[in-house]
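REQUEST ID: PR-0412
SUBMITTED BY: lab tech R.K.
PRIORITY: routine
TASK: structure prediction, single protein chain
INPUT:
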Amino acid sequence: AMWIIPTWFWTLAFVSTCTRADADRQSDEISRLLEEREFLQKQVQSLQEEVSIRTSRKYGNDGDNSCSYIEKQVKSLQTAADDKEREITSLNEQLRDVKQSFAQIQTTGCALNDAERYSNSSHVTFKGKYGFLVEPMERKRYDDPETMEHLLHGKPVVITNSELTRSAVMKWDLDYLGKQLDGQNVRMFVSPNRQFRYHSNLNNTRYYKWTSPYETRTGTFRSFVETVHELDKADNGSRAYFQFLLNDLNLTKELDDDVASFHWNWLYNTVVPDMGWGDLKHNLLLVGMRDVATPVHYDGMENLFAMISGHKRCILFNPSQYRSLYPFPAHHPHDRQSQVDFDNPSFDMFPRFHEAHGFETILAPGDVLYIPSHWWHYIESEENSMTVSLNFWFEPAWQKESQSKHKGEYEEDEEAVKAETPSEVEELILKRDIELMIAEAAHPSRIADVLREILDKRYDFLEVVGNN
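STATUS: complete
OUTPUT:
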């Protein structure tokens, strides 16, 4: 018998192939232009150094004329370099559009492969419009061997069909949670805009001038629901967010049964032992109004982020994107948070932000996103619906081993599968530790100076042999 392959399949395959080719061509062109710009900038630097030398030696009138001629050359080369920069910016925008088109195609492909689960995702919209490059994040079934490969190498992946929160998916809505949490005092946050950047007053030990960007309120879950309705009616841009640890709640029998029915066997018989993770530290329940956003930040824990109701767009950045994301100082209340406002970025203040490069996905109910320790992540709820999600925060393997060695309890298991600690994670930890050490000994106003004094002209003329 002959299989009839529908037209849409060939269309999708053709468009996907074309889009990949377009992206490759754009990337090659950008690489070429970057090389040309770097060459021009080196010429500019060389000529500027020559002008400086000639000026310092006071060549007289001939020297002045010579410097004037060289300065004209510098100006011409700088103009050429600026032209290359504009070409690169334009191509980056084109490449972003191409990659976003490809991401959309891949999302469509996922929907076609799993139509029943994701057929309702096509109408989901998000407010954020961002200018940086993103690639689609990979999606893998929980029982696919490649899923554990992603985890073991510290790479983000959307895990499907795990049924981790099977007893909560599409059940934990506002009405259900309102009944189960009725009468308990819980914490909610209310922001004058849609952003909820985490902060800790405990970190304000170095006396930065700072005020909380949102209001913290205490009340019942029903009062949270009432606040949501009031803000929806006011339609003034304010948003409310509920965040509470499950182990701090008095769970009803029904809610406790839901949690007990999670797919714990998969976690504790496969994921945790293979990864070498430590204890489950927290389950953070998040209930958000439509359109709320958690600005980009990183956490020290390994996170399995489970989507229960609604949809969220998640953009993750490698720890190596540190320079592009401009984190707050380590002793600031917004420690581990980026200073860049994704909704209204200032490229004058944060010029390297345009170099940011992320991995994007849209989570549907039942999806579980693995957010590796120290990976930056930005999370945004859909525009037209409430969302419910649940964090599973585990102690990383390297932290568990470090604490066990400190206590003298650690024993090497040569046969155990071990998760790697990627070098970019180690580097990010090192940067923060150095900053913390300096901050302990110096006033915050001195930190930048101390770092400059350590580096200034000490490594410029040394030739380093090898990479290790």
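NOTES: Residues 1-19, 102-120 have pLDDT under 50 and may be disordered.
REVIEWED BY: pending
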